[in-house]
Amino acid sequence: MQIRKGNDRIVFVFPSLGIVVKLPIVHFFFAARCSWQMFFHCGAKGRRWKILKRYLEFPTKNMSSFRWFLFRGLSANWNEFRFYRKTKNPFLQPTYFSLFGLLNIQRFDEPCQLEETGFWWQLLELTNGKVSDDGHHFEEPRNFCFHNGKLRILDYGSRRTHDVVLQYGTKIVELFNPEYSKPAR
């Protein structure tokens, strides 16, 4: 067993079983600190509770909101599972099971070891630049694997990633070349 940690999730890798287990990371400290700062450093004393209440109501997708710190890993897990179940896109590494985002079970394949620059340039070309809308997921080759010689994405919990996959996932699977090198200028 191996353990890998990302920004929002911790992944337990079981190569002998052929699975990975993804658990969300809950950022209690950051959520509490931001709430504290919002309460004591924003606005006049009479408005503090009103400002804090509004801050606590910000949706999960709003970066640095209270809910974002607490639930973004859980949300990413749940989004991954639902997106795979809905689309079965060949570019997605299958997510077999989710316990409402608290725990995901996904197929294991070794992460990609390709050189980052050529990898990024090829994805830019195959998607007409669309991958730059979600650089976090598409810049890093280790967010991908090869299964039966075809490229697959391992981390696809973001809605921006979903847009790229829906538009270009099949094209990437069909045309991605591991021998590609960055074009000379």
Describe what this molecule looks like in 3D.
The protein has 185 residues and is an alpha+beta fold. The chain has two domains: 1-108, no CATH class; 112-185, no CATH class. Helix content is 42%, strand content 17%. It has six helices and seven strands. The protein has helices at 28-41, 48-57, 66-87, 116-126, 135-138, 159-175, and strands at residues 2-5, 9-14, 19-24, 95-98, 104-107, 144-147, 150-153. A five-stranded antiparallel sheet has the order 1-2-3-5-4, covered by helices on one side. A two-stranded antiparallel ribbon has the order 6-7. Helix 1 runs antiparallel to helix 2 (48-57). The radius of gyration is 19 Å and the shape is globular. The chain starts with a strand and ends in a 10-residue tail after the last helix. Keywords: Membrane, Transmembrane, Transmembrane helix. The chain crosses the membrane at residues 12-32.
Give short descriptive properties of this protein.
185 residues, alpha+beta, 6 helices, transmembrane helix, transmembrane, 2 domains, 42% helix, two-stranded antiparallel ribbon, membrane
